[in-house]
Specification:
The protein has about 400 residues and is α+β, with helices and mostly antiparallel strands. The strands form 2 sheets. Strands 1, 2, 3, 4, 5, 6 and 7 form a 7-stranded antiparallel beta sheet that branches. The radius of gyration is 23 Å and the shape is elongated. The model has no long low-confidence stretch (mean pLDDT about 90).
């Protein structure tokens, strides 16, 4: 067991660690991982406040994870909980106070909240001890709730959470809330940029961008894991990729909405007029000052390149619009990129973007059935897509399906 000094040092280090993460979803994962590490908790979840509800936003469970085959991830479904006294999380958010329960199956009737054992029944899991704390900003505003489940002793036995540690976890939850507030602001800025593009292209929605961003991270994670890349580097790259992938089509803000809002397939001439959105998007990040801006420019420019060299825009400078490597035949077009000339992030977002487009409704088509989508993704491996990225895509398909449910298209 850690000493008091070691616990304080660990909490301080964890607080510093989470402030290096910029993307909201990845931040929630890091917060929950570190909180469980501190308490040696088997499971946990985070709810974020959305008006008068809590949205179940992230979950981890080591016991259930161990039942899965190697390399597979735990899939969870998002849902909402009213902020009231009926549920434990709702009570904590409403009253801005911690609740430490030694055994949820023996709470008695003196408390106003109750615990729903339905998840345990479905998953064959046993919830015992539970610590639920509000995530509050320095202004005292509740941004969400963190719930830790089943504290463990050094031998792996389930024990109650220590009441002596509650003040430390409250301190950590406040630091986490400040980081979440900052990440939400970054996410909102990105979504506003996407709304600008949506004024031109009704298909370029926040839901689509969130799905493509989340798909890209999972595909990259699977690809990285297969190659045994260092965990720290993978996490850093995921943070940049998530935000950059969301902005893959931001260059459409400069394309005529007469073309983008056309109710039907584009003609060859109209399709040519859309292609500049790639280098226009990259041009928006021309004053590269951070790794994120570099990644965003890279994704915008290269997500329509094809593995076999039949994509666009090819070797072109997004600032000067000059061709960098000669021309394609006698047609005056820049020579296309192919294979590993295409940046990794571009190859990943290409897969994520097409997968989402095939499963989405468009003015010229209905959403494809899953079997047809997967057949098409496999068919395009080696021509449109990097085969290794397609392999990574199929290896995390169950997680991608859960992401689609988390970010549904709104009714128009």
């Amino acid at each position: 067991m850690l000493s008091e000094r070691e616990k304080i040092a660990l909490i301080t280090q964890i607080s510093l660690d989470i402030n290096t993460v910029k993307d909201l979803d990845l931040l929630l994962e890091r917060i929950l991982t570190n909180a469980r590490r501190f308490f040696n908790a088997d499971a946990g979840s985070i709810y974020l406040k959305d008006k008068d509800e809590l949205k179940f936003s992230h979950a981890q469970n080591d016991a259930l994870q161990k039942r899965l085959p190697p390399g597979r991830k735990l899939v969870y479904t998002s849902f909402t909980v009213p902020i009231n006294s009926r549920s434990i999380a709702g009570y904590v958010a409403m009253n801005c106070e911690s609740v430490n329960i030694p055994n949820v199956s023996d709470m008695g009737t003196a408390v106003p909240y109750c615990w729903d054992p339905e998840f345990d029944k479905v998953s064959h899991y046993t919830t015992s001890s539970m610590l639920t704390v509000p995530m509050t900003t320095h202004r005292g505003e509740v941004l969400g709730v963190m719930q830790l489940i089943n504290a463990q002793d050094d031998g792996g036995g389930i024990i109650p959470f220590s009441s002596a540690d509650e003040s430390l976890i409250r301190h950590f939850a406040t630091s986490a809330a400040i980081a979440v507030e900052r990440a939400k602001m970054t996410r909102n800025i990105i979504l506003r940029m996407i709304k600008m593009a949506e004024l031109r292209d009704p298909n370029e929605t926040g839901a689509h961008a969130n799905r493509v961003g989340a798909y890209s991270v999972e595909i990259y994670d699977a690809w990285s894991r297969d190659r045994g890349l260092p965990f720290e580097e993978t996490e850093r790259q995921k943070d940049m990729l998530r935000m950059a992938a969301m902005l893959h089509d931001v260059g459409k803000v400069a394309i005529s909405d007469v073309i983008l809002k056309k109710p039907g397939r584009l003609s060859a001439e109209e399709f040519e007029a859309v292609k500049p959105h790639t280098y226009i998007g990259a041009w928006l990040f021309q004053d590269i000052g951070t790794d994120f801006e570099e990644a965003a420019a890279e994704v915008a420019l290269s997500h329509h390149e094809h593995w076999d060299g039949t994509g666009y825009p090819g070797h072109i400078d997004p600032v000067t619009i000059k061709h960098l490597k000669g021309f394609e035949g006698n047609r005056g077009r820049p020579l296309a990129k192919q294979g590993e000339e295409i940046p990794l992030f571009g190859r990943i977002v290409a897969v994520a973007d097409v997968y989402d487009a095939l499963g989405s409704r468009r003015s010229y088509k209905e959403p494809w059935k899953e079997e047809r989508i997967l057949s098409e993704m496999e068919r395009l491996s080696g021509s449109h897509f990097d085969p290794e990225i397609v392999t990574a895509f199929f290896s995390c398909l169950d997680v991608l399906k859960s992401i689609a449910q988390r970010y549904p298209d709104r009714e128009r």
